[in-house]
Automatic annotation (TrEMBL):
Residues 45-263 form the Histidine kinase domain. Residues 1-22 are annotated as: Disordered. InterPro entries: HATPase_C_sf, HATPase_dom, His_kinase_dom, HisK_dim/P_dom, HisK_dim/P_sf, Sig_transdc_His_kin-like_C. Its EC number is 2.7.13.3. SMART domains: HATPase_c, HisKA. Residues 13-22 have a biased composition (Polar residues). Keywords: ATP-binding, Kinase, Nucleotide-binding, Phosphoprotein, Transferase, Two-component regulatory system. SUPFAM superfamilies: ATPase domain of HSP90 chaperone/DNA topoisomerase II/histidine kinase, Homodimeric domain of signal transducing histidine kinase. It catalyses: ATP + protein L-histidine = ADP + protein N-phospho-L-histidine. PANTHER family: C4-DICARBOXYLATE TRANSPORT SENSOR PROTEIN DCTB (PTHR43065:SF46), SENSOR HISTIDINE KINASE (PTHR43065). It comes from Rhizobium ruizarguesonis. The lineage of its organism: Bacteria, Pseudomonadati, Pseudomonadota, Alphaproteobacteria, Hyphomicrobiales. This is histidine kinase. One of its GO terms (molecular function) is kinase activity.
Amino acid sequence: MTDNTAFPKEVSLPSQAERSSRAQAVQQRERGMYRLSTLGEMTGGIVHDFRNLLAIIESGLRLAETKADHPESVRDYIAAAREGVNRGVELTSQLLTFANYKELDLRARDLNELINSFKPILKYGTGTKVRIRLVLGSDVPNCGVDPSLFAAALLNLVLNARDSMPSGGEISVLTERFVQTDIAISEPPPGTYACLRVKDQGCGMDPDLLQKVLDPFFTTKGENGTGMGLAQVHATMQLVGGYLRIASERGSGTTVDLLFPSI
């Protein structure tokens, strides 16, 4: 008598190597989706940054025309305009980096050195009514920063601060060591950070506006704004693993902190 009992076939479980390969494929897809989403946000922001840089280049050339009889001054203005052109080239490279899914140029860098190299752009970009005050700390830790992204973020913050003070005033750009010890909602995890702070004496914002300022395309500047400035900065901080904090009060100005994890 023949036994026709059907035995279940053996099921071969995936090997460790196969499981690892599948996990890597999932991670790559997730990374690709994240970068694609970020690319959409960053593209609008980079267009906004280009407009800022073109305004600075135009300002430098216009000032050079008015100082044609003072060669030393003209050279300074032209140098500022050339620096704006160089920053535009860096932004173009950054956009290509995102489009080609290349890694960011994240290396341990000194925030103070980056800010000092960017002083001509800040000086001529804010105009004659606004003063830039640099207060650079002596114990700021090195942190992972992409120079072109950092420059674009700083320029956005400074020009936003300038626009909040149509009658002029002072913008403070500060750096310091920041140590987070507590675990709290909406705060960075405990650790040591390099903090960049941009503080203005402008009109400030009510709490309801403050909750919306990081939303893409939200602007308080009417037709003169794109709503991509702070959204661009926020996306930048997410890409480098940092954090953005903003505080504002109507009539008292606005303070924005960028926290970069120390290396």
